Amino acid sequence: MTRTFKSLGFLSPDLDMLRHTERDRLAAEFANLEHTMSVAIDECRQVSGVTSENYFVGAAFWLRCIESCQATVLLGERGLSTTSYATLRTAFECLFAACALWRDPAVADRIEAWHHKERIKQAKGMLAAGAETRVSPAELAALKAVSGEVSPPCDWSHQAAANIAELRFEYETAYRGLGLAGAHATPRSLDDYHVVQPDDSLTLRFEPTTNRLEWVLGLVNTCLVCGIQRHREALGNSGGRPATGLP
Predict the structure, then answer these.
(1) Other CB atoms closer than 10 Å to residue 9's CB: what's the count?
(2) How far is CA 229 from CA 128, 165, 206, 224, 226, in A?
């Protein structure tokens, strides 16, 4: 079996060449992004003197954000255009949660209540969908126990987090835009998977594309810059400090 893109798709080593080509084509954009990424990671690694539990929970979300930003770049530079939208949307979700926690300690309880509301909702949904015939008796008993719990009052949402973090514009533009463009199963997410022929007929297309890679890299950088700014603010409020000498 050959290991070409035609045979393996995005699992093919052919994509390594594309990655290097895109790194050369967008050298300035990648250099700027890598600098921003380095600042974000260094400031997390060199934090000292912070004792706030709220800070650390927010920092864990921030690390998830950084990781998702990196995943976006790894996917995008290999030509997986729409898939990278999903990981970048996750990065923004984690950004909003981290920054909201740093701004308001009460957010922790709201996120926890939302978690329990969702697990109860899932258990009820699984039972309504026929779990009795799909899971073991022990699993069924566990589902029934969870479904019987009282769902806590909860008004939490990613938009609420963005509002608290004062990142509403990023929510309305980047977060919603990524959902429309391809993070969800939308009509626009199919644009790269078909070709319109001269007679208006359609043929399927499955190939790497980096047409919007520069735009994606810009959004990743925006996400990181917002997080760095809010992280520094959180450190100032909690008694910690980033490493000296960083921009």
Answers:
(1) 14
(2) 45, 11, 39, 9, 5
User: Over its length of 247 residues, how does the chain's per-residue pLDDT go in tens digits?
Assistant: 789 999 999 999 999 999 999 999 999 999 999 999 999 999 999 888 777 889 999 999 999 999 999 999 999 999 998 999 999 999 999 999 999 999 999 999 999 999 999 999 999 999 999 999 999 999 999 999 999 999 999 989 999 999 999 999 999 999 999 999 999 999 999 999 999 999 999 999 999 999 999 999 999 999 999 999 999 999 987 655 554 434 4
How many other CB atoms sit within 10 Å of the CB of residue 23? 13
DSSP reduced 3-state for 196: strand
- Dihedral angle, C-alpha 127, 132, 135, 141, nearest 10 °: 70
DSSP assigned state of 235:
H
CA dihedral 19, 21, 23, 24 (to 10 degrees): 170
